[in-house]
Structures
1.
Amino acid sequence: MAMASGSTFLRLWLTDRTRDTLLSSLPKEDLSAFRLACHDFSVRAAPLLFENINVDFRASTFTRPARMAALDRIGHHVQRVTFSMAHTPETFLPPLLDPTTGEEVTFIYEPYTQTTRDSATSRLSNPTYGSWEMTDMLVKQYSPLFHAAANVPSFIRAFSSLRNLKHLRISCPGQEAIQRFRRSIVDYALISIRIAVERSNLHLLDTLSLLSIHPGAVLYLNPIMGFGALPNSAKRWKRITNLTICMDSVPFAPYPPLDHLKLVHSYLQLFASSLTDFVFRWQGVKGLSPLSLDKEVCLQKNSPEMACPRRCHLALRPLKFKKLRNMEVENIVVDASQISSFITAHRHTIREFNFEDTHLRKGDWDEALTPLTRISGSERWKEKAEEVMDVPLLLSPVGLEEGKANEVLLDYFNYKPKAFRPSIGAWQKAGARSRELFPEHMKRFLRTSIFNWR
């Protein structure tokens, strides 16, 4: 490389800051071609090229030997992974039927997590799904995608290669509302991901993003009540300091799905001691605030709609994030008193909070933000409040003298000192009078407006 490029380029290339800036500005397509030039180029470009990878899960994603060998070679460069698996007709699981009687068979899932050097031999010597009869039925009636999603050892091997992983993103869009109480192949994949993270040495993983997920996903990602969980499973997830959740909306009227809301509350309780940054968004219609579910009336009374009526009398513990600094919730319905209570409870740690597209059922924002006055000792924070309003925009003609422009404006609006109420008829009349004052580009713009400027 030095003989071909010269000493000048060699000095430039060996300067770390200059080289990294150059490589960071190249698109991935160019980086892929750049690696083919020579060995040194390949070594320098690999960390940037494989820093972010996307996994669109298929039946052979973690089982193809060549693909897994490649992941072993580049896995130490990966810092962010996006795992995507959409809900489709292929992920739907029909009832499991007995081949002899035709009756529906209950399938109690217990993840097979045995990882040995000869995993193929161990899977043949031991039934994967509890018994040989159940394994035979599942192999014959369910698609290969199901068996790939339930292949926990393959997930563990894949995540074990990502020893420098810092950010895990999971995206499972497309679930229909009528399927919310049914388990699909996507849910089995989430179980495998959770177990793989818990049993891999991912010491740098501190950011988790659940993007476009269904409400039931948190049941399978919760290590406390999840399948195949170990006593120390929750310890791994308590290292997460940045959590982002974008969840399909759970309508709370007229009959809120209380079990789903309890699952969300229980999942957030897992991160109470570690979170510093938290973002939550409901997709679709507005939902209840996930930060104050313990204060919702529908979750405090005994309800026959819950799946576990014997435990309905147990009150939810309030969420208290000990290290929370930045918080954002979006598309929620909440009471002013609930916001006030949350701010008061986190006044010692919180630095910034953002309520986007929030509707107050009871009270107003002055009541909701009352703790800010007590914390700061004054009402100066109100002086920094931003007021948002719609402001009309009038484009003035280019090249028109100031005096004529003022005359045209007065004529447009039929100006009256006491009342400034321009009507559509006045706009039409003004357009007919002053058509010649507008250049061509303004005429083209106004022809596309809702008014008749022709």
2.
Amino acid sequence: MKRRNDDFDGEKAMPGVQRRRCTRLGLGTLILLGIIQLLSVLSGLFIVFVPDGIHRIINKWGQLGHAGQGLSSWPTDFSRAILPIPCHSHNDYWRRVPLYSAIEAGCISVEADIWLFDGQLYVGHSLASLTPNRTLASLYVDPLVTILEKQNPTTRFHPDGNASHHGVFDTESEQPLTLLIDFKTSGPSLFPYVVSALEPLRSRGYLSHYNGSQMIKRPIIVVGTGNTPFNLVDSTVSNPYQDIFFDAPLEAMWEGLADEEPPTIPKSGPPVYGADIDASMPELAAPKGEQRSANDDLGQGKSGAPDSPEAYTTANSFYASVAFTRSIGHVLFGELSESQLALIRGQIRGAHRRGLKVRYWELPFWPIGLRNHVWDVLVEEGIDLLNVDDLKGATEGDWRKRAGWWS
């Protein structure tokens, strides 16, 4: 029996009908989900523009005419919620906002390069960068006085004011901030001007000092580096308040274990120290009438240095530093060698035995993965301060995660 043609037509139409029904169902589901999502967004906007009770209080807290009026700030909230971390803001004066950017990041140490001209201490990386308004006072001393006076208010609840010696960090008020002053011009000429420039901090009791038997910690620790002369730091005549400490030479402090011999590592070449620049930069030479001795202005840890590294103690020094590449050498193939690690460990061991804080400067800065590797190793080996140019990279995220030396 032959099937009718309309039966075939009906069977052919069935798949098309089913497809259309599935399509409508899918579209309907998507539209429903879209409506739900839209309602969710609108409800969030409703909370923002028409907040409930607790959100109204939080959003308007402390404002005039609202809950908490006059209660949103504290006398010492300059650095509220900032946690100090052991990092040093290298060449801090280069930052868009010197000093404050470092404190905001939590750095416990900042650096200022100073140059003496006409009795003024100017701050800058080179002669070409100096300007009349960028001085040690305007960029560091005066702002620190303002910050610390705010952190040590005199009120009826706190009548002693500065006697409390609270530091710049409200979360850890006993944490000092180190001001590392890099002497760029003649050390012996600069030194008395630095002693004088620190008087606003000294007179308020803000400077850490040595009292003859121990270091008395105060909100600020001043350390001299660059052409700072050790013999003047160590003298109670030139450093009568004993509130300027020395940045000792870390490379001179290596100590091995048992019969361990110091590792021999190729260096990248000797640095150019202050005494070598007189011929090409006469403006940096000792002033007329002053005689520069053979050990003046020799660079970090070398100017006016003693014959023995045992002379560096907590009575006269605070940091022990060295340029990483010049002392440890280049990092080849993305990893520190065993010899380099042995050198680092010996230097840290010797500095810590003397009670000094270890800092390596001139660290690799690129590739980022290599930089992070060196940071990680130094922290693991026990350095006390990470010398950084990239504040964000050092204080945010997890730089210990390393994809490769090139990343």
